[in-house]
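Final paragraph of the annual report: two paired records, presented back to back.
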Amino acid sequence: MAMINAYAGKGAVAAEDRRLIARREAVLGPAYRLFYETPVHFVRGEGVWLYDSNGDAYLDAYNNVVSVGHCRPEVVEAIARQSAVLNTHTRYLHDGIVAYSERLLAKFPSELSHVMYTCTGSEANDLALRIAKNVTGGTGFVVTELAYHGGTDLIAGLSPSLGPAVDLGEHVRTVPAPDTLKVPAGKLGSYFADGVRAAIADLKRHGIKPAALLVDTIFSSDGVYSDPPDFLREAVAAARDAGLLFVADEVQPGFGRTGDAMWGFLRHDVAPDIVTLGKPMGNGYPIAGLAIRPEVVEAFGRSSRYFNTFGGSPVACAAGMAVLDVLEKERLQENAREVGAYLRSQVKGLSSSFVADVRGAGLFIGVEIAANDKSRTDGEITARIVNGLRERRVLISATGPKANVLKIRPPLVFSKNNADQLVDALRAVLNSL
């Protein structure tokens, strides 16, 4: 899935950029990938725009890391201001981490009343699984078939989307994603729950005690599955009945992106034991973390000493506080709901035989593409669309089991005018096919 949108050395790359690519490959090695058949050389960003080395503006409909917009002045100023005063670790007293934690936790259900900080979403998921193993005494985990939860050794082993070269290990079981094109909406909850029960039973059959069900609440790597908004409840109940914790991965759908709620799990009316946070938390500054039930972390805290050099530092918390300021001041959750609904309706209105489904919540949208002929695969058509949009200076990516779902996930400051520009470009690309 991750390779369909990667540069393969065949694009029409300018001589200057080709030299930069060669220098990059010489020092970074083969594991790094560039986006698009013809990579883009960006030099600055502002709001929903990225600007290349020629000064051309590209509409960014992909980068949720900068949730409140590229180079957001309030966040930049907060980081610079705190950096000029103090930046150290959490083993000294400091007001910043306490004030930010109080404000962040106020946005969660009251049961989630403790927070722990990391630098990345990968670290947050890694720590969540350490806690789950400590609390349950189990080592087994259940994830979806094409999940992505991070890049640490432990979490990569729970991220099937990384491909067959990354072993899942004997302690991991996968379940089919809640695919609304394959399963009627009314049966989606029981379908997904049955998969979870089967995975738990198989772990136990092989002598592996289950520890947790880990779910990205928008199923972003599986193909973006959002509705009906209560289909997770039966699966979570099944996991709890079997003694597992429920870990909600909110690294991508969190901080108001789904529009209906601050967190994706709230759309499903479920109460996680642990919630993991990342990407949009600091608008590009590396802050991530966990919101946790106190009874879950109590035993772990008694037996394990946790420390993170940079997680929860004064500068990180200043960035996080500034992001919350902007989210609230500009009502960006409401903007995600309104603009996202408008964008989905406009995409659904495109008269193209290639569009098989449009789904999502807020400003997290998946558009499933079908080739409709045997001469081209769904993934090939999707790649042409993604690269065609890049040529029209609109940035998106692809996801899903056949890499045939357009992944549209812009900063939360995206407007209806921006949506119109995206749809116009998408219409032109589809017509060109």
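The closing record of the year follows.
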Amino acid sequence: MTRPRRSVLFMPGSNSRALKKARDLPTDGLIFDLEDAVSPDAKVAARFEVSQSVAAGGFGRREVLVRTNGLDTPWGQEDLEMVAKVRPDGIVLPKVSRQDDLAAIVSRLADLGATRDLSLWAMIETPLAVLNVQQIANQARDASIGLVGLIIGPNDIARETRLRQVAGRLPMLPALTHCIFVARAFGLDVLDGVYNNFTDLDGFAKECTQSRDLGFDGKTLIHPSQIDLCNAAFTPTSDEVAHARDILRAFALPENALKGAIQIGGQMVERLHTEMAERVVAIADAIGLG
């Protein structure tokens, strides 16, 4: 099943009011954050708030993920214990730099009794992670790992590489496109990183368009005000949906069963386009487009 992941909002685990509002936001996914968005003195309280919120449910079709602290921190082990108990849809692992990082987490979760359907998301936010992203993504071949996607962490990448975060993201593009190519090669979804200035909606909208055109499945967000613009950028247009349905109907006709290419609306369309059309239709159906 194709799951829309156009907009995925980070929410500080220490903000109980925000966690309650999350059930009504028009976002495709939520990441309850126990890591960067929570100060050290609030980590324990944030873990409790997140556990209560996830256990209570009521998030509808929204995908619920939890970003834990790393196992090399004082909070990582208890974060994993909480995740194994309350069972969100998935876990976001910060600062994954090597393929062994995933295996260590999966082993620890198994010891804690976590279910196999818990999905893993690896955050790519260090130079070593970008260099090793192919080996990290290769873990998707092992069904027991449960790796379903990559999330770009541009702020950490910029900090560690000294790349300038400028409009258009030219310095960051090689790293971004490399991660997209690797994600596609291993059948993973890949989410773009956050846009820091949530008051700059024009700049944010332009970055969403760039993100979509680069091939990302969606974008992570830091503020609810960004949701609608992000959804709009990653939602297929009515013309795109109609064209995709036309392609699928045409290739389903008996007379086209053995054809590799056919003409639709004055354009030559190859059978390889059916896979793209199927995804457009699946996303449209999942978000309720006609």
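The two ends are 18 Å apart (CA to CA). This concludes the annual technical report; the extension proposal builds directly on these records.
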